[in-house]
Please model this.
Amino acid sequence: MTAVEYWRKVVIGSQTSVLDVMKVIDRGALRVALVTDESSRLIGVVTDGDIRRGLLSGINMKDPVENVMARTPTVARISDSEDRVLALMTSKSIDHMPVVDEDGHLIGLKTLRELASREQRNNWVVLMAGGLGSRMGPLTKSCPKPMLKVGSKPILELILESFAADGFKQFYFSVNYRKEIIQDYFKDGSDWGVTIQYLEEQDRRGTAGPLALLPEMPEDPFFVMNGDLLTQINYKNILEFHEEHGSLATLCVRKVEQSIPYGVVHTDHHTLLRIEEKPVQEYFINAGIYLLDPKVIDYIPENTYFDMPDLFHRVIAKGHATAAFPFLDYWMDIGRMGDLQQASRDYPEVFS
Model:
């Protein structure tokens, strides 16, 4: 049974005796008890170490646990990523971290053992965050578009956390416009439990050109993603699809339906064949998410502007296998002000 299922078994009140708390800790197998008030707000944490120190200082086993509990425990918020929680637990050398909501109510428990045992992936992630974002108007005059906030976090942070939650640890951010804002915010990535390096474009290089700046050749297929996207796509499924199809380059695609608000006339020269009233057309669009084999880097020219469609055309022309990965998960390309507003409306349901 996991901590997600167990944590309710170790919730106690502040007047519970030290003796009873020892039984709770022993029975719960998590080596911790969580102290709440009548409103289920977290007011303290007790470990066997706290009890041991209390006994050494002369407390009675019948004394209330409030006499030995830690009153200002380190906590995680519901919006914190698991990687951020893991990094904090590691830095503070703690094995447990309660999760609380905005009002301090206890809603869960994270354990170091569970977080550290998650599957780790060696695949690199390259996030393209160097664009101007000129279509966003005044919002990007002093802020790069990937740093615009959706909900309480920048777009780029939400992307980072979505990859980190699936076990990806090695990130490269391609930066150019207002790069210092991105670099000052994320630094080396340690606050998220990942490693971030920066590909600094001296001039704009498109959506594929910055890959020529990678300091070394990756050993495994690596993701490339535009830094202004929000999605709940399953990255593991893309990896499996890529391998299954023996693809050198995989492009994630999204089906789009477009209604034509007119009667479409079909003709053969001057002869009327039929009238199709307000048809709906379906087609796949480039979703801005790619999985590439390291070999594709050989096809990227240095010191020039080069977009991802150009790379795919070159790979196809060389006769290599490519694939299109269709997905139905949430996806939003934040290209215009309306997209940002829609993403902000979606945020509470999709990303909380």
About this structure: The chain has a mean pLDDT of 89.
